[in-house]
Design goal:
single chain; mainly alpha; 14 helices; about 80% helix; globular; disordered C terminus
Length: about 400
């Protein structure tokens, strides 16, 4: 389970990432409070989220092409420094347009930083430890989110939002320090694309020749759109058919976070990030989502939320692992950028869709319908992968063993 932690560079990165994720979620909490207190509008909050997501859709492919050509560490140091400056801008008294500007610039940074992070992370551990490293990263992200939100919730009432922005700025300095302290001699060299190898178009052409990757991305989009927006459906269930209180919603949010940590630990322990695990987990969480719409009470709903959250982390981590292991190294940044675009699209499409279904069909109807659609999608994805891999589930397909450098 903890094989990646034997690597000094990964230990430095993991510790810095935990601090940075905690700081990021403290800033998210403070920013939401600041916007709501200034405008009283949930629409304004939605605009901030949109401004952070839109650049990924527009610039992500170029960010991936750049990631395949340049060294990762200097790029990451520059991105962290800019993010720290943006957090410091928010410390000063800021109007709504300043907040929107910071959100937009953050989205632009994410467009280039995301693919670079993916390549850099895979260089810190041996290839065979990548699945465990990504799973541990999910655990640390969940832990950082829980810790950051909890500490931020306490501090914001005492100090106001400015201190939370300052803490986030300092957290980026921890990441920069970790990057500077790493030993480059211990990093795994990844093949980089040459300037003559083409950019975005070459990446698109390569992706179109990888049917397995395309099927995985399509399945990720459907399950991400209709099966990941539990912040919407949980609130609708608690306030509607379950007749719960704000305390019940808090309980469900905690259960979801615990499930996410458990899923990461489970995957890190087994290290099995195969296509079979991907398909089985996708089917399981879809079926459980269908059942959650029939839950009789809050405790019954919570009992289903726990494995759903665990399975969602397993599914998403296996998607990322397969994408990285089953694509050529010099194309990996562009493929990872596509994963980021799919993730952004699933959030932009999924949240309003689930909200509309909750308003139209009721919370139970929305979960049942979404669960049915994602279950059918999981079965269809399995059938498509079986057809691509051959007429039967042979051993190579079962273990998900890729070629060393797929064409």
């Amino acid at each position: 389970m903890f094989a990646p932690l034997r690597e000094r560079n990964y230990r430095l990165w993991a510790a810095a990432d935990l601090v940075s994720v905690g700081g990021t979620w403290m800033q998210v909490l403070a920013l939401n409070w600041l916007i709501l207190s200034a405008t009283g509008s949930a629409t304004a909050m939605g605009a901030v989220v949109m401004l952070q997501s839109l650049p990924v859709l527009l610039l992500g492919s170029w960010g991936g092409a750049l990631a395949d050509r340049i060294p990762a560490r200097p790029m990451l140091i520059a991105c962290q420094a800019i993010r720290a400056l943006l957090a410091l801008v928010l410390v000063l008294p800021a109007g709504n347009w300043t907040i929107y500007g910071v959100a937009l610039i953050s989205g632009v940074i994410s467009s280039f930083e995301g693919p670079v992070l993916g390549r850099f992370g895979s260089s810190l551990v041996p290839r065979e430890a990548l699945a465990s490293a990504l799973a541990l990263g999910s655990v640390l992200s969940s832990a950082g989110r829980i810790g950051g939100m909890a500490l931020g919730g306490v501090l914001i009432g005492i100090t106001g939002p400015a201190v939370l922005f300052l803490i986030n700025a300092v957290s980026y300095l921890a990441v920069i320090a970790a990057l500077l302290a790493m030993r480059t001699s211990e990093m795994r060299d990844l093949a980089r694309a040459s300037s003559a190898a083409g950019g975005v178009i070459a990446g698109l052409r390569y992706l179109l020749t990888q049917p397995t990757v395309l099927i995985v991305l399509a399945l990720s989009f459907v399950l991400g759109s209709l099966g990941r927006n539990y912040q919407v459906s949980m609130a609708a269930m608690v306030s509607g058919p379950l007749s719960g209180s704000s305390g019940a919603y808090g309980l469900l949010s905690t259960v979801f976070a615990v499930g996410a940590v458990a899923g990461g630990l489970l995957l890190a322990g087994t290290g099995k990030s195969t296509l079979r695990v991907l398909l089985g987990t996708g089917f399981l969480i879809s079926a459980l989502q269908f059942c959650s719409g029939l839950a009789p009470n809050v405790l019954g709903f919570a009992a289903l939320i726990l494995p759903i959250a665990a399975g969602a982390v397993v599914f998403d981590t296996v998607v990322s692992t397969r994408i990285q292991l089953d694509t050529r190294e010099e194309m990996r940044g562009r493929v990872l950028a596509t994963v980021g675009i799919v993730s952004s699209l699933s959030g932009i499409v999924g949240a309003p869709s689930i909200g509309w279904m909750c308003d139209t069909l009721g919370a139970r109807g929305a979960l049942v319908l979404a669960g049915a659609v994602t279950t059918v999608a999981a079965v269809a994805g399995a059938a498509a992968l079986i057809r691509v891999k051959g007429k039967s589930l042979n051993w190579s397909f079962v273990v998900g063993r890729p070629a060393e450098q797929p064409a």
